[in-house]
Design goal:
Blueprint (H helix, E strand, L loop, with lengths): L1 H13 L30 E4 L10 E3 L10 E2 L15 E7 L7 H14 E12 L1 H8 L5 H12 L10 H11 L3 E4 L23 E7 L1
Parallel strand pairs: 1-2, 1-4, 2-3, 4-5
Antiparallel strand pairs: 5-7, 6-7
């Protein structure tokens, strides 16, 4: 009965206590609790933001639902705690992914990549770098050029932040990575990373790096 509840609450308050209703955190506030741990099994290569390019023998990860018979981890928000064990992967790869994240989200992603890579593990990134974007989209100091570039380089494709090589080196050094090595399209000193880049039309625009833990 209501009067009984009010009486109990009144007595509790006189004792110096208060009853409050605790809300379960929203899905985007749950941090590492938002996802169950993903069983990677024997897989030690991970492909971030994979869709629609699935790599055989890799764990293909994407924010979207994936319809593919290979090894996949769908609905994974890579800007939060990754649902993978620490020291799991020997190789990681992401093509045209990080430019869709804000700077803070890029840093969060790289922190989690560092945690989940094995010692000596390699992350290969291919993305439109600030150097290439400025060269292609900002050829002169006119306002009209900058306004057009804002649409063509950013808004048209959902791009948010283009890191420069210097910025990436600074962030990776702070996190604890050993090296950030610029490489060329399709080329690598590691057999597992050769020929992974698919967008040859973006040579000159993209930055290609291999980051060593």
């Amino acid at each position: 009965m209501i009067w009984v509840k009010k009486l109990i609450l009144s007595l509790i308050r006189k004792l110096g206590y208060e009853i409050v209703r605790v809300k379960e955190p929203a899905s985007n506030d749950r941090g590492e609790l938002q996802k169950e741990k993903f069983d990677c099994g024997f897989l030690d290569k991970i492909h971030y933001g994979c869709r629609p390019n699935y790599l055989e023998g890799w764990l293909n990860v994407d924010l979207q639902t994936l319809d593919h018979p290979g090894y996949c981890c769908a609905n994974a928000d890579l800007t939060q705690r990754h649902p993978f064990p620490s020291d799991q992967f020997a190789f990681g790869f992401a093509e045209d992914f990080i430019e869709h994240l804000g700077q803070a989200e890029q840093i969060m992603f790289l922190y989690e990549v560092y945690r989940t890579l094995k010692k000596g593990g390699i992350l290969r990134l291919s993305f439109p770098g600030l150097e290439g974007v400025l060269k292609k989209h900002y050829p002169d100091p006119k306002y009209e050029t900058a306004a057009l570039a804002k649409y063509d380089a950013y808004e048209k494709w959902g791009h948010v932040h283009f890191p420069s090589l210097e910025e990436l080196e600074l962030i990776c050094a702070k996190i604890g990575f050993c090296e950030v090595n610029p490489v060329e399209f399709g080329h690598s000193a590691y057999n597992e990373l050769i020929g992974l880049d698919t967008r040859n039309d973006q040579v000159g625009l993209n930055t290609y790096v291999e980051i060593v833990k």
